[in-house]
Amino acid sequence: MATGVIVEIQRNSPNWGTVVEDIVKLERKIFPKHESLARSFDAELRKKNSGLLYREVDGAVAGYVMYSWPSSLSASITKLAVRDACRKQGYGEALLTAAIQKCRTRNVQRITLHVDPLRTPAVNLYKKLGFKIDNLIEGYYSSDRNAYRMYLDFDASQ
């Protein structure tokens, strides 16, 4: 695989184990234990209406985005993570843009996500790509951590 290419994870891929291992390590490093999908990652990937895109740099996962489409009308970005050393280089934006395009192929009308308001770079990225803040959900992550629920609507004529 060419360095820096965004790829959709495939269970039958020969590098499946290595990629999943890299993603689980990244998940554990970036997200608090109660927010991490590291323990249930395989189950999440087995869900019928979910997908995961990742980007490798120098043979290691630089970042990934997980998304799902629980209904024919809506989709959700469930995770977006970029390795510390790869931040501020456009990987997060490229991954999110690719996930939005994947969701659009499902003809959904809205994509939603939740983000900690204190994760300013993430909030700014979502806004840059057209997401709007719907509301603040107090205690979403834990009793002392809130979340913005954000959304991106698609024009039905597009």
From TrEMBL:
Domain spans labelled N-acetyltransferase: 7-155
Pfam families assigned: Acetyltransf_1
UniProt-recorded Gene Ontology molecular function terms: acyltransferase activity, transferring groups other than amino-acyl groups
Entry-linked SUPFAM superfamilies: Acyl-CoA N-acyltransferases (Nat)
Segment forming the signal sequence: none
InterPro entries for this protein: Acyl_CoA_acyltransferase, GNAT_dom
Top-level taxon in the UniProt lineage: Eukaryota
Protein name per its UniProtKB record: N-acetyltransferase domain-containing protein
Lineage: Eukaryota, Viridiplantae, Streptophyta, Embryophyta, Tracheophyta
